[in-house]
Amino acid sequence: MAVSRRVFVASAAVLAATAGMTAPALAAPPDPRRGRIPVGPDDSPEDLVRKASQVRPTAGQIAWQRLERTAFLHFGVNTFTGLEWGTGDEDPDVFQPVGLDTDQWARALRDGGFKLAILTVKHHDGFVLHPSRYTGHTVASSTWRNGRGDVLRDFADSMRRHGLKVGVYISPADENQYLHGVYANGSARADRTIPTLVDGDDRTPPRSYTLPATDYGAHMLNQLYEVLTEYGPVDEVWFDGAQGHIPPDKVEKYDWDSWYALVRSLAPDAVVAVTGPDVRWVGNEGGLAREDEWSVVPVQEKDYGRTDYALSYDAPDMGSRDALVAARPVADYLQWWPAECDVSIRDGWFYHADQQPKSVEQLTDIYFRSVGRNSVLLLNIPPDTEGLLPAVDVTRLREFRERIDRELPEDLAHGARTSATPGRVTVDLGREREVDRVRLAEDIRYGQQVESFVVEAYRDGGWSEVARAGVVGASRILLLPGAVRARRWRVRVTGARGAVRIAEFGLYRSRV
């Protein structure tokens, strides 16, 4: 699929006249220190909009948003017990993926159009897919491969070999450590030395860290240290906020500040999601973004530095002017916190033989309602008990990629004559062409500014509207109700927070 990246700059003054606003200042150059801007209850609505227009993503967030399609691989003891949430007391010997082939995973994901894959290195049951020094509930305690198996090693090597980036999910919850009196034991936070060397430990760490943590927080820090120093570069570290099935009065307050600090030091290029400061959960497990999905949203800082929603995680509006005002009493910052849309290709997150993958039509709809709405799709494809991605799922991934390629074939605007005037971009295709898909993107290095826009075609001697929508961000795809035939096309911004830079104005005729 051809992707154009032509950059057009709309001057703030004329754009403001188009949008009926006071002219904002020209956008500041990219500044990674402007990823979050403090706000308070005394900020006026105008202050909030001005500050929102100044928020900028980091280089890592920009690179992450360009991935578009990422994969999740839920794999562990649950694969063999049939559970979705394990209990922590499983016999490690149940883990027997005798046909494990992580190269097959990587080939299937690459051929399906995915750019990054995240492995469940540890789920809530606490079973770890590498031979950790800090727990016996690992692959090393299974007879699989005579106790010398290391799924994480195979996974990381295979993904890189086939050109995919590597992500790791390490669940904060740990039923096994609860059973051993470490998780949710009420211990106080104290300075801990990471890594904590154990008997027979032959490591000579080039640097150690002193970080505040509970007993379990230190356990997590040590596991993070192993994963982030022994398996090559990691591009995404994925946490959720699960507590597991422990009694409700036995809550473990996670040491988010220390975990984030260690990740930042050991994997500086990784984004931290979705209980993390770089990427947020979209708020559902259906893979669906909001119609207008903002990357700049109000946040609170809670529980030892955890980045949290100022509004409800499933609020229908996360970043509009009204949302900024609604969050004003509790928000600490406006932050670049783009959405990740997670969904499983099957009903469950782990493999179950009686389930089948979603249809191509379902996956395509999810694509347009995630990637097409300024979000990144995170699609889970669970390996089976052999250690393979099921053949029907592999076929479906290929069919999905082929379908998207037909939905968005060559960009008809690529190489076309283009002109930019304040607040609008016009494309002359050279001759009349049929268009039924429009793709837009802002240059998000300068923030997210567009609040509303229209797409118009020149027909019968004048411009006529063919579509209108709200936000753009890193990716906005519009599906026209029918093909429109015209030579000249334009996008006209009708509302914005600051100077708009359109990075992409793509026109397509689907082949579906």
UniProtKB/TrEMBL annotation:
Class of this enzyme: hydrolase
Record EC number: 3.2.1.51
InterPro entries: Galactose-bd-like_sf, GH, Glyco_hydro_29, Glyco_hydro_29_N, TAT_signal
One Pfam family linked to the record: Alpha_L_fucos
Keyword Signal: yes
Residues covered by the Glycoside hydrolase family 29 N-terminal domain: 93-400
Keyword hit for Zinc-finger: no
Cited SUPFAM superfamilies: (Trans)glycosidases, Galactose-binding domain-like
Region Disordered, annotated ranges: 24-47
Keywords of this entry: Glycosidase, Hydrolase, Signal
Cleavable signal peptide: 1-27
Family label: Belongs to the glycosyl hydrolase 29 family.
UniProt name for this protein: alpha-L-fucosidase
Organism: Streptomyces purpurascens
Lineage: Bacteria, Bacillati, Actinomycetota, Actinomycetes, Kitasatosporales
